[in-house]
């Protein structure tokens, strides 16, 4: 399953963010400060003790402050078990111009908002940085918020390395059995939280956070999966929405099949754009875009049969088709990484050395060369996604999808088609289902779509903006995943103005 991605910073910072991952709280002896919580919404009176809590902030590196927010594991049982959400705040640069708190989420599902917020200088425009406290949180089950841990790291290596495109009855049976075993391991090893990591529950946590921050309205920046979290919040709490931007949007009414096909086509489009840059750099796969795409497909098939060697890794010694697919996908999130992919392919083609491409796969999966993982995204993504939406348990469904998808996306279609099996075999019943969100009563919500976004195709942003009663559609005509603060001053100026002056961009703005 391809994640929607931790997005929205430069390629260099993205890579740094992905490898830093989960950190332990850094507590100092400095005195704590407390925020003033907001009144409890009338509909939330049974949850008063959560809404009325005060955050105790401690220093946690540079100018950042950290705290823990307590929320119920099950919102239907407010007197039952609780869990803690880690929160990090980087204070506004100019206190005299401070507007409030801007809550940020980088995506995933499973991306660490705590680590994302540490890069406050990169993830928002300089005027916004001066005026807002940038606040990130690790959603329940993620990174430093009671992280879900389904299987040991060595078994996670095997899970990610497996053949992602089964093409014989025996391989299909093995793939289905592996998916079922992974789900059962999550159910057994991550209780009780694994049954309560849905996006709806994370959105409810976000409203408790809003109150604890002392904000009457939630000002929010969500990227990639964070747009689904933001839209879900708006649907639940439309009158609590402040200045909300959803960048690299996912449409909430997408079925699992629609989502996976959309991603397959999105990554195919992005890979074709990379192919031209590869040719310009002297591509080892061919001299035309079609030749490069055909060559890439042939390379993945070759690795399916005969993996390449990997050197310098504590545990992984072979680049399989699975690892290679993740490595190629990693480079599609930002065009700044295209040359890295081209360079990684040369030793693979010339010397059967997959070390460099494995490095890209490691970046994608939050994996270190010593065999440890710095985050738990590659586990929690399934736990969240499969609670949000179910899929078919019938393996024949995926065999048909693989044929249909590959006709529309020859490189990524089969890979994405089979990735749906995880949710098809998930042992915990889904608590959500796809459906449109209108968020009637919310102020303008800005939705940004990038025309050649691989992970969240442009059409999804159009779809979400049309569903939202107050949706404002903004288009970035470009490459890569998400748009704000990546490369375009037209986008940046429009969003900065929205956050600073509460003036939404013109609906239909194209940059």
UniProtKB/TrEMBL annotation:
Keyword set, alphabetical order: Hydrolase, Signal
Kindly list the GO molecular function terms attached to this UniProt entry: hydrolase activity
Asked whether the keyword Magnesium is assigned, the reply is no
Keyword match Signal: yes
* Gene3D superfamilies registered for this protein in UniProt: alpha/beta hydrolase
Give the Peptidase S33 tripeptidyl aminopeptidase-like C-terminal domain ranges.
409-511
Question: Which domain of life does this protein belong to?
Answer: Bacteria
For this protein, the record's PANTHER family field holds:
2-SUCCINYL-6-HYDROXY-2,4-CYCLOHEXADIENE-1-CARBOXYLATE SYNTHASE (PTHR43248), TRIPEPTIDYL AMINOPEPTIDASE (PTHR43248:SF29)
Q: Which family does it belong to?
A: Belongs to the peptidase S33 family.
What's the name of the protein? Answer: Peptidase S33 tripeptidyl aminopeptidase-like C-terminal domain-containing protein
Originating organism: Nostocoides jenkinsii Ben 74
Lineage, top ranks: Bacteria, Bacillati, Actinomycetota, Actinomycetes, Micrococcales
């Amino acid at each position: 399953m391809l994640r929607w991605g931790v997005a929205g910073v430069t390629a260099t910072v993205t890579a740094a963010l992905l490898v830093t991952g989960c950190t332990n709280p850094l507590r100092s002896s400095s005195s704590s400060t407390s925020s003033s919580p907001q009144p409890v919404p009338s509909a939330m009176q049974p949850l008063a003790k959560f809404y009325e809590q005060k955050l105790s902030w401690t220093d946690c590196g540079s100018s950042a402050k950290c705290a823990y927010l307590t929320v119920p594991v099950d919102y239907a049982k407010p007197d039952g078990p609780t869990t803690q959400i880690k929160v990090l705040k980087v204070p506004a640069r100019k206190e005299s111009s401070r507007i409030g708190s801007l809550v940020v989420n980088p995506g995933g599902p499973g991306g660490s908002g705590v680590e994302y917020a540490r890069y406050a200088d990169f993830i928002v425009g300089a005027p916004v940085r001066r005026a807002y406290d940038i606040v990130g949180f690790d959603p329940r089950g993620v990174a430093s918020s009671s992280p879900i841990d389904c299987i040991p790291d060595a078994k996670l290596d095997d899970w990610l390395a497996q053949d992602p495109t089964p093409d014989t009855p025996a391989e299909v049976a093995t793939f289905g059995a592996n998916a079922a075993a992974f789900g059962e391991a999550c159910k057994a090893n991550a209780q009780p939280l694994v049954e309560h990591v849905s996006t709806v529950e994370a959105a409810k946590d976000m409203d408790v956070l809003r109150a604890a921050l002392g904000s009457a309205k939630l000002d929010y920046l969500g990227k990639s999966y964070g747009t689904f979290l933001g839209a879900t919040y708006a649907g639940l709490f439309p009158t609590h929405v402040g200045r909300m931007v959803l960048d690299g949007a996912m449409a909430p009414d997408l079925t699992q099949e629609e989502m996976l096909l959309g991603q397959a086509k999105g990554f195919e489009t992005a890979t074709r754009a990379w192919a031209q840059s590869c040719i310009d750099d002297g591509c080892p796969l061919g001299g035309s875009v079609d030749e490069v795409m055909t060559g890439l497909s042939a390379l993945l098939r070759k690795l399916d049969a005969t993996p390449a060697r990997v050197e310098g890794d504590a545990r992984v010694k072979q680049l399989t088709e699975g690892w290679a697919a993740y490595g190629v996908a990693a480079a599609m999130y930002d065009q700044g990484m295209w040359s890295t992919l081209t360079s990684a392919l040369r030793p693979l083609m010339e010397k059967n050395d997959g070390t460099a491409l494995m490095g890209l796969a490691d970046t994608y999966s939050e994996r270190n060369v010593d065999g440890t993982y710095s985050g738990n995204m590659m586990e929690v993504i399934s736990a969240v996604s499969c609670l949000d939406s179910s899929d078919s348990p019938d393996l024949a469904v995926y065999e048909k999808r693989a044929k249909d998808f590959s006709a529309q996306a020859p490189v990524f279609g089969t890979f994405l088609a089979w990735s749906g099996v995880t949710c098809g075999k998930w042992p915990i019943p889904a608590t959500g289902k796809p459906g449109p969100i209108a968020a009637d009563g919310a102020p303008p919500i800005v939705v940004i779509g990038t025309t050649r976004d691989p992970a969240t195709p442009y059409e999804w942003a159009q779809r979400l903006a049309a569903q939202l009663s107050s949706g404002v559609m903004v288009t970035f005509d470009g490459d890569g995943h998400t748009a704000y603060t990546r490369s375009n001053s037209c986008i940046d100026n429009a969003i900065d103005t929205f956050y600073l002056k509460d003036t939404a961009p013109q609906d239909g703005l194209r940059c």
